[in-house]
Amino acid sequence: MSKRPSVNFTYLDQMSGGDPASRRELLQMLIKELKTFPRQMSACLQSGDWDGLQKKSHHFKSTLPFAGYAELIRTNKELEQLSRSRGDAKRAGELMKQVEGMCRQVLPVLEQELKRQA
Q1: CA 36 from centroid of its chain's CA atoms
Q2: HSE of 62, CA atoms in CB hemisphere, 13 A
């Protein structure tokens, strides 16, 4: 059984300005990106598209603070840096698997938070 990720919604709350509708909208955006970006990043890695991987991981970096999951933020940052330098493909694959796994772990937490907002 995997452990529940440590999620901090402080940034999400700040960016929503205390508006419940804005908070829901941000949560929906975050959930969508956590479902799509890891697949897109993985496809870039598998095809050897280092530029695409760097661009996707860079964009994802701006999304992740909303999730408040520090470990995921750090891992994605390392993946972005590695892709920028076209570093070790094996290490990039390991990091990509970690990003995908952490996204799978945090999605139910975010979905539960969104339902709680309804």
Answers
A1: 10
A2: 6
Region of residue 53 (left: phi > 0; alpha: psi -120 to 50; beta: else): alpha
Contact by Cβ (8 Å): 105, 45: no
- HSE of 54 in the Cβ direction (CA atoms, 13 Å)? 12
Domain boundaries, the chain: 10-117
- CATH class name, domain 10-117: mainly alpha
pLDDT given at position 117: 83
pLDDT tens, 3-56?
A: 677 889 999 999 999 999 999 999 999 999 999 999 999 999 999 999 999 999
Query: What is the number of other CB atoms lying within 10 angstroms of the CB of residue 93?
Result: 14
Pair of tokens at residue 35:
């479902």
Identify how many contiguous H helices and E strands the chain contains and give both numbers.
Answer: 5, 0
Backbone angles phi, psi at 71, to 5 degrees: -65, -40
Q: Which of 9, 115, 21, 112 is nearest to 67 (CA)?
A: 9
What pTM value is reported for the model? Answer: 0.89
